[in-house]
Amino acid sequence: MAAHRVAVLALDGVTPLDLAIPAQIFQHRPSTPYELTVCAVAETVTTTAGFGVVPTAGLDPLRSAETVIVPGFAPVHRPAERVLKMLRLARDRGSRVVSICTGAFALAAAGILDGLEATTHWQHIDELETEFPRVTVRRDVLYVDQGDVLTSAGVSCGIDLCLHIVRRDLGAATASEIARALVAAPHRDGGQAQFVPAPVPSVGADSLSCTREWALARLDQPLALRVLARHAGLTQRTFIRRFTQETGTTPLQWLLNARIGRARELLESTDLSVERVAQDCGLGTAANLRLHFRRLLQTTPTAYRRTFRSSDGGTRIDCAPLASLL
């Protein structure tokens, strides 16, 4: 399997976590054929935490990378013109270009976001919108996928975006495997709010995490709102409010996303019929599963399985078709 080259561009003042997220998720594994290089202009890059990072290479890997990722940096500044030129060349060459957090400012300064939707850290939303009026700034999302140009909101939302990219490239099962290793949520839909009262759900006695775990083990069963609320020992109104505070989405939308995620894993890893997959993930019928796949993924279950199953039953990376698939 050919390696997929990923270049992570560390700008001066890079945020350590923003840099670590793609470095961790796109590291080479037998199941993830990524080849990652950390690039920078200088021999040592200063981070927002005060320590330095030694990059693997200069800017040359940007010339051949299939995916270019710009982590967040602070204070927000306009990168050097030669950096912007390399980003433009990468995009013109057909590379997938990605930003995490305030990395969106570098893409915007290069003109890559002109005419597109994008997002950034909620504290810098107004600044991005004011400075780059040709960019349609989304305020209420974790990340924005515009095909070959993707942007994420603040810091930890970079995990959601990078896992989303792995899901596009290699399928839900591989993304879930990486998420489990990171002890991260396997899927948070990009349409969720990026700033909620409890961005990191509590796992104490008052958390609804036990109810979510209980539901995930019973996706093949009817899980009406009243059933979930009863398990949590709350009224439906209180349950909806608490659930939305903890997860940034409604219970029913969360449940639908979980069922679609389960369907994707079954399509990738089993030979079950589409009808059986629909039953096992709680969507009832093949027709209902096809409806949701068409609405959410712009494809069919059969086409999805064909894309993410190779002749030997494993997964494969094939970015060109995926850009139009999702």
Structure report:
There is one protein chain. The chain has helices at 16-25, 81-92, 104-109, 125-131, 157-170, 172-182, 209-216, 225-232, 236-247, 251-269, 274-280, 286-297, 301-308, 319-325; strands at 4-9, 34-39, 45-46, 52-53, 67-70, 96-99, 117-118, 136-137, 143-145, 149-152. Helices cover 43% and strands 11% of the residues. By secondary structure, the protein is α/β, with parallel strands linked by helices. Strands 2-1-5-6-10-9 form a 6-stranded mixed beta sheet, sandwiched between helices. A two-stranded antiparallel sheet has the order 3-4. A two-stranded parallel ribbon has the order 7-8.
What is the topology?
Blueprint: E1 4-9, H1 16-25, E2 34-39, E3 45-46, E4 52-53, E5 67-70, H2 81-92, E6 96-99, H3 104-109, E7 117-118, H4 125-131, E8 136-137, E9 143-145, E10 149-152, H5 157-170, H6 172-182, H7 209-216, H8 225-232, H9 236-247, H10 251-269, H11 274-280, H12 286-297, H13 301-308, H14 319-325
Parallel strand pairs: 1-2, 1-5, 5-6, 6-10, 7-8
Antiparallel strand pairs: 3-4, 9-10
Helix pairs in contact: 1-5, 5-6, 8-9, 11-12
Primary descriptors:
alpha/beta, two-stranded antiparallel ribbon, six-stranded mixed β-sheet, about 10% strand, disordered C terminus
